[in-house]
Specification:
Radius of gyration of chain A: 21 Å
Mean pLDDT of chain B: 87
Number of strands of chain B: 23
Oligomer: heterodimer
Number of helices of chain B: 22
Radius of gyration of chain B: 37 Å
Helix content of chain B: 25-40%
Largest sheet of chain B: 7 strands, mixed
Distance between the termini of chain B: 156 Å
Helix content of chain A: over 70%
Number of helices of chain A: 15
Strand content of chain A: under 5%
Largest interface: A-B, 48 and 42 residues
Structural class of chain A: mainly alpha
Low-confidence stretches of chain B: 1-7, 634-650
Mean pLDDT of chain A: 85
Largest sheet of chain A: 3 strands, antiparallel
Low-confidence stretches of chain A: none
CATH superfamily of the largest domain in chain B: DD-peptidase/beta-lactamase superfamily
Shape of chain B: elongated
Shape of chain A: globular
Strand order of the largest sheet of chain A: 1-2-3
Distance between the termini of chain A: 12 Å
Structural class of chain B: alpha+beta
Order of helices and strands of chain A: HHHHHEEEHHHHHHHHHH
């Protein structure tokens, strides 16, 4: 019934200019709300620097352009190009491993005229590829298809993990698994996978994790053990959030951020600035906007005309949630410090463009539907 | 193949399964968001107080604010010690990454001696790292400009203006005011402990010296440190993560120290200094107001400029002060000298009072004295003696040694010691200067303790002319003179007359304000004073030429102290002995005779005879004080007197 009602709405909206531009208005509204919030907080966290706000605006602009461009591409085309997209991405990842530039102890960058992180491409390429692969198969996927899907997910994940870039590799793994989940992965597999993960965790700890990653986890478990070293970030961000109280200290009045006690305040830890200056009320408003965006993403996916659209749309939406959950969990001291920005709020980075690209795909799914039987 | 698979695809079932999965996903999303909100609720509502406190502790620091030191004025209200802004190069250790490197680079711009750096590093080691410490003081304007242009190379280093003590009259008053110096670790601990002790009951824990870097090291600055210092204030400041002060949130003003008002007369002090400088004299002059015990002038020469010590003196400059003339040495309070003949009036008074002599006692003076059964001759300064009938008055006027040899032997050391102690010898004068020495008023006990020998009669003979073991400070001598002028009342000498704070005045009340000597019916003292008057008069007074035609009546006594003992038959000849063995010239006196306004003691090292060298200086000092300094209030009276006397002669 929900499907029918929305189809009727769609019919009405079809005639509008925005529809012809392949723009979903409610989603655009949610994204703009987040961007506005971002500019407000970046201005405060950056020490009232308009230069930072301008740069952020430029990135949002670029993100909008990329979103619009991808919205024009029909899901069918996307699906056709998926294998090429994926293979090129894997090629770049291999190139990074052998020729990449390192920064802060990790090899993440590659320079081919433009300097970029191939792992960003994979954030889209992996879910698109897995969705394209599973879309034509009978669902829930057979064991064989499941193994192939897992290979598609884990190959880039491992390549990125050894850069090393734990945060991005987890996100990519998540985006791939979400496709499989929405494809109807049987609950018994999910439960046993979780069981295996619980067994594997200590093994990973001893054999595959880098020292700095172990350090982050240890610090997360007991930040007071090293209050001026690696625990400093977590302690200061919790002080910032906690001291904000219910209503916050007011915009531009957060002492933790304005007096620079809070590190990385306009990038990864921007949520703490928000919490300090806008309080619990501000946080709830932010989460409400996020929830609205996620609801809209799932709603669009539900209306997707084919399996590819549905699987991809829902997976991208849920990946967006993982982004914000990991970031907020980290800044609030619930999760270890992982270098992930707060989506569409944190200052800078390629992440904005990638995120906007995924919303472009969602808009494309919404606006490239053929008319249902009404 | 593909087609076969597609045939198996059950679109309806897939769609409803997808719908279920979406609902599950949404439930999980909402659940996890609820979890996040619960977490923020814990941080922002339940634990809010704890985090608010931590956030305040991060940014708010309470720092002490140094009080302004009290000022020092002379009796006429002239400012003798003030506080002046000077520029200093200061370092906040906390904000400096590599201290050694920073100092090394600073030395490219400024000359900073090694010992200053050592001192700085020692200071920094024990005090809070977020405070600012001076590494170079007294920056010139040019140096301030140079640093300002290069400041960005030196995080944590800045030029600060701070108040430093300044003495406008420099060397003239250094031996009165003393000087300030950097507070040492031991001093700091001592002051802090004292502070904690004093405030234990009140529960005040803030330390008075928390923001203070200088402390009184000598003189009045040291003696009145407590009053001059004031009470520390505090400032609540907001700082950023690097400890830089963003703004002041609250301020509790420090309370300035008390101002001090002296009995001292700056003009007189300057006049004496000037006169001594003209003579190139080493020595001391102390002038007191006999009616109060207030010190009018206290000069010790040579002296030095205490302003050199502001912000630390270089070892080169300090070495310049370590000359044989010893300018650092405060002769007025620390110098101990044989009083020589200046104590003859006091000895005469003791003799009269104890009935050993009467005004009519006469002795024959052949030019020497000897003890019974001993052929050692104690010679009179006058080789041929003062005649066959020397009485006590003549003995004082002409400073007859033989008379006093005889008198001292008859009195004996016990009675001399007891009598002289009443005049304040061998004791502190009570002056408000910590460094005061007491000299030696010898006694049998003293000699046994100090020398391990019994007292001999020969020792007593020398005491009779103020030589031998007896030493006094110029301060004691001036006070003993004031006792005569003041009919037997001995006040505690004081430099400070009163204190003031916010226009509230409080007079200085020493613990023991005065002692009264029993003067009987007053006739003994009158005789002694009359004799002292004649010292300054023709025909035979030893100071008659110095005080010829004085416009006031003066009572005095000269003294000439042997520094080198002279063999039995040797003649003293100044031209033949090295200067450091020349006689010390002394003079004590007071004036005007009837209503004494000034009593003084002059002590000049190696200057020769007291009558010819010390007395003329005393004359000029008294002329200045009585005829110029006090003139405004007495001018009418004096001019009237002059007219009268003119009329009489005409």
């Amino acid at each position: 019934m929900a499907l029918r009602t929305s189809a009727a709405n769609t019919h009405k909206a079809r005639s509008s200019l925005l529809w012809r531009l392949h723009i979903d208005v409610p989603l655009l509204f949610g994204l703009c709300a987040l961007m506005g919030f971002s500019l407000l907080v970046v201005y405060s966290a950056g020490g009232e620097s308009l230069a930072l706000v301008e740069k952020q605006l430029v990135r949002f602009g670029a993100g909008m352009v990329v979103m619009l461009m991808l919205a024009q591409v029909s899901p069918r085309t996307l699906k056709e190009w998926a294998p090429l997209f994926f293979v090129v991405g894997i090629g770049f990842l291999l190139a990074v491993l052998f020729f990449g530039e390192s920064s802060k102890g990790a090899q993440r960058w590659i320079d081919i005229g433009v300097r970029f992180q191939p792992s960003e491409i994979m954030k889209l390429a992996v879910p698109i590829m897995v969705a394209a692969f599973l879309a034509d198969k009978a669902l829930p996927p057979s064991f064989k298809h499941l193994v192939i899907s897992l290979a598609l997910v884990l190959t880039p994940t491992v390549l990125i993990m050894i850069q090393p870039d734990l945060g991005t590799s987890l996100l990519i793994a998540a985006s791939g698994f979400f496709v499989i989940f929405f494809a109807g992965l049987r609950w018994k597999y999910i439960v046993s996978a979780l069981g295996i993960a619980a067994i594997l965790a200590p093994i990973m700890w001893y054999f595959t994790m880098e020292e700095y990653q172990k350090g982050r986890v240890l610090t997360f478990l007991n930040p007071e053990s090293d209050p001026l070293g690696s625990g400093y970030h977590i302690i200061q961000s919790q002080i910032a959030i906690g001291s904000g109280g219910l209503y916050g200290k007011g915009w531009l009045n957060g002492t933790q951020s304005q007096l620079e006690f809070l590190p990385e305040r306009h990038t990864d830890f921007i949520f703490a600035v928000l919490g300090e200056e806008f309080g619990l009320i501000g946080i709830i408003i932010l989460l409400a906007i996020y929830l609205f965006v996620i609801w809209r993403g799932l709603y669009i996916s539900l209306q997707g005309q084919d399996s590819f659209s549905r699987l991809l749309g829902a997976a991208l939406t849920l990946t967006f949630f993982v982004y914000l959950f990991v970031n907020i969990g980290m800044v609030s001291g619930l999760l270890p410090v992982v270098g992930l920005p707060l989506p569409l709020i944190s200052y800078g980075g390629t992440s904005i463009v990638t995120l906007m690209a995924s919303f472009g795909i969602l808009m494309s799914i919404q606006t490239h539907r053929r008319l249902h039987s009404a | 193949m593909l087609k076969r698979r597609e045939a198996i695809k059950d679109v309806g079932r897939e769609t409803s399964m997808f719908f279920v999965r979406c609902v599950v996903a949404l439930v999980i999303v909402v659940g996890l968001m609820g979890f996040l909100i619960a977490r923020e609720f814990k941080l922002q509502v339940i634990d809010h107080k704890k985090y608010r406190t931590q956030s305040e502790n991060n940014r708010i620091r309470v720092q002490p604010v140094a009080p302004v030191r009290g000022l020092i004025y002379d009796q006429t209200g002239k400012l003798l010690a003030q506080n002046r802004s000077i520029f200093a190069l200061e370092i906040v250790p906390e904000q400096v990454g590599d201290m050694e490197d920073t100092i090394e680079r600073l030395r490219d711009f400024f000359q900073i001696p090694d010992e200053r750096i050592e001192k700085f590093l020692e200071q920094v080691k024990f005090r809070p790292k977020f405070n600012s410490y001076a590494i170079k003081s007294n920056l010139t304007e040019e140096e301030v400009a140079i640093f300002s242009a290069n400041q960005h190379f030196f995080p944590g280093v800045s030029v600060e203006a701070r108040l430093e003590r300044y003495y406008p009259y420099g060397a003239t008053l250094v031996h009165v005011l003393g000087r300030m110096g950097a507070i040492t670790q031991e001093e700091l601990v001592r002051m802090d402990e004292k502070d904690l002790e004093a405030n234990r009951e009140v529960g005040v824990t803030r330390l008075r010296y928390a923001a203070t870097s200088k402390i009184g090291k000598l003189g009045l600055e040291r003696y009145y440190e407590d009053r001059l210092h004031g009470e520390v204030g505090s400032e609540k400041v907001e700082t950023d993560v690097r400890g830089r002060i963003v703004r002041v949130l609250e301020r509790e003003e420090p309370q300035a120290g008390q101002d001090i008002h002296l009995y001292l007369h700056l003009g007189l002090q300057q006049k004496i200094t000037e006169l001594m400088n003209e003579l190139g004299a080493r020595g001391a002059v102390v002038a007191v107001d006999p009616s109060t015990g207030g010190v009018l002038a206290m000069v010790s020469q040579p002296a030095y400029d205490p302003n050199m010590f502001t912000g630390g003196i270089s070892s080169k400059d300090y070495k310049k002060l370590l000359t044989p003339e010893r300018p650092l040495y405060n002769r007025a309070v620390q110098g101990t000298y044989p009083p020589a003949s200046t104590i003859k009036p006091h000895l005469a008074f003791i003799g009269l009072k104890d009935g050993v002599i009467t005004p009519n006692t006469r002795i024959a003076d052949p030019g020497w004295f000897s003890l019974p059964n001993n052929d050692h001759r104690y010679r009179d300064w006058k080789r041929w003696g003062h005649g066959a009938t020397v009485d006590v008055m003549q003995a004082i006027v002409e400073s007859c040694d033989t008379f006093f040899y005889d008198l001292s032997v008859r009195l004996g050391i016990n009675r001399i010691h007891e009598g002289m102690t009443r005049f304040g010898f061998g004791q502190k004068t009570g002056i408000d200067i910590v460094e005061e020495k007491i000299g030696i008023m010898p006694s049998r006990e003293w000699k046994r303790a100090a020398r391990g020998e019994p007292w001999y009669n020969g020792d007593t003979v020398n005491i009779g002319i103020g030589q031998g073991f007896w030493t006094v400070t110029p301060l004691q001598l001036a006070n003993a003179t004031a006792v005569l002028a003041n009919d037997g009342i001995r006040y505690n000498l004081q430099l400070v007359k009163e204190f003031s704070q916010d226009n509230r005045y409080q007079s200085n009340t020493p613990v023991m304000s005065y002692h009264q000597i029993n003067t009987g019916d007053g006739s003994w003292l009158d005789l002694v004073k009359e004799s002292m008057k004649k010292v300054a008069e023709p025909p035979r007074g030893t100071a008659r030429s110095a005080f010829a035609d004085a416009e006031y009546v003066v009572a005095g006594k000269t003294g000439t102290a042997q520094v080198k003992s002279i063999a039995q038959d040797e003649e003293y000849d100044a031209t033949k002995i090295a200067e450091e063995f020349h006689d010390n010239a002394l003079f004590i006196g007071y004036a005007p005779f009837e209503q004494p306004k000034i009593a003084l003691a002059v002590m000049m090292e190696n200057a020769g005879g007291g009558g010819s060298n010390a007395a003329p200086l005393a004359r000029e000092i008294m002329d200045y004080y009585l005829l110029e300094a006090l003139k405004p209030e007495q001018s009418d009276e004096l001019t009237n007197d002059e007219e009268n006397s003119d009329g009489a002669t005409n």
